[in-house]
Specification:
The chain has helices spanning 10-21, 33-40, 51-60, 70-76, 97-109, 126-140, 161-167, 178-188, 203-234, 238-246, 267-280, 286-299, 301-309, 337-347, 360-367, 379-383, 403-409, 424-429, and strands spanning 2-6, 25-29, 64-67, 79-82, 114-118, 147-151, 171-174, 198-201, 318-322, 351-355, 373-375, 388-391, 414-417, 433-435. By secondary structure, it is an alpha/beta fold. The chain has three domains: 2-201, NAD(P)-binding Rossmann-like Domain (Rossmann fold, 3-Layer(aba) Sandwich), CATH 3.40.50.720; 211-297, N-(1-d-carboxylethyl)-l-norvaline Dehydrogenase, domain 2; 300-435, 3-Layer(aba) Sandwich (Rossmann fold), CATH 3.40.50.720. Strands 3-2-1-4-5-6 form a six-stranded parallel β-sheet, sandwiched between helices. The protein is globular and about 75 Å long. The chain starts with a strand and ends in an 8-residue tail after the last strand. The mean pLDDT is 96. Bound molecules: nicotinamide-adenine-dinucleotide (NAD). One of its GO terms (molecular function) is NAD binding. Pathway: Nucleotide-sugar biosynthesis; UDP-alpha-D-glucuronate biosynthesis; UDP-alpha-D-glucuronate from UDP-alpha-D-glucose: step 1/1. Belongs to the UDP-glucose/GDP-mannose dehydrogenase family.
Amino acid sequence: MRITIFGSGYVGLVTGACLADVGHDVICVDVDVDKVARLNAGEVPIYEPGLESLIGKNQAAGRLRFTTDSAEGVDFGLLQFIAVGTPSDEDGSADLTHVLKVAETIGNNMNDYRIIVDKSTVPVGTASKVGRAVAASLEKRGRSMAFDVCSNPEFLKEGAALEDFSRGSRIVVGTDSERVKKAMMECYGPYNRQRDKMLFMGIRSAELTKYAANAMLATKISFINEVANLAERLGADVEEVRHGIGSDPRIGYSFIYPGCGYGGSCFPKDVKALAHTAEEAGHPAEMIKAVERVNSRQKGKLFEKLCQAFDGQLADKTIALWGLAFKPNTDDMREAPSRTLMEALWKAGARVQAFDPEAASECHRIYGERDDLVLADNRDEALEGAHALVICTEWKAFRTIDFDQLYKTLLEPVVIDGRNLFSPETVKAAGLSYYAIGRGDSV
Ligand code: NAD
């Protein structure tokens, strides 16, 4: 099958590489000239485990190409995937500029029937807007041509994106057209052999499904963080509570890890966008708004705990920070709790010495050269001359620490653990003050 994908970011690249890997012919179109040049030179601009070799293998086999030439892309695929960014607008709504631009491009260049597949996360009603944008472009050209628009939201997680794409729990397609159903079954057939994972539904339901899924997961995180904050005040240990509730199969263990708040490119913007959609629909979604408020507050927790540990005297302190990415196995720092912390520390006059296994160059891209930021090459280097250690991301490499050595290295014996990686007894036995999330200390 010939497939075109607009947008070569996390979703576009993973979709392109995975679909090429099962034998489809794929062209990825992106407006970022530099990105496309790097991809054509065999360099993958993002870190995602396994992606570089999958792209390389399929490029070498001639099934995966990258271009900035959108006319070539529109001409190529029966399926035209839209996988461009939908960032938050100032009012929290999803900014559809890029999505509608692609729709216009398709209308400007198509010469035959096309199926436009919306893979970007977009609010309910966007498929109709995309359809209108394509039709308007065709009309300007004085052309009339059949096309369909369907919704195919993506549920992959960064860090495990290839596994999620190929072995995900479901493939949601919103359409009422038999022709589209047939084409989408052909497209995903190789990933749908073990059991039927295709869930066909109405377009608006598919669009809402993506937001409902992310809002549900974000709700679980904010819920456990709220319980963690209560546990701190009540002298309970949220890790014991987590086991106590997670063992109930109706609740389960997933997504109830307390921490320093969720970040990334999806949960924050999707929760905001859903709240905005609800407001517009005349149904202010109280729960969704609370999820967002709880999370913003949680992202300030690490700074609060540092202030408590240092009696608010953070000026001229050097803070070692382990983990910059919003979660392990990615270099993505969009809305990461580490950013909230670093920015607060800089405001307070502190210096940051940070180490992340993958996100250092992304951090440099965001913040540039600063006197109050050192990007260390390894975790030990980040500790040199530091007054305290803060853990922001639960990379595997941070899970074992020689606490006696850490006690000797740090100028003050302060460890702030934003991911509850250790047992408080072990850390405290080495003479360190240990501040975790919801584990009985009083912040
Ligand atoms: P991204 O920012 O990593 O990539 C978007 C790409 O689109 C960029 O390379 C950009 O240059 C390109 N682009 C912008 N305008 C274009 C145009 N007119 N034509 C061609 N390319 C264009 O974004 P992402 O993280 O891949 O997310 C894409 C969409 O998928 C978003 O709606 C997001 O919410 C959704 N999503 C993301 C994830 C995730 O984990 N990242 C998971 C599920 C869904």
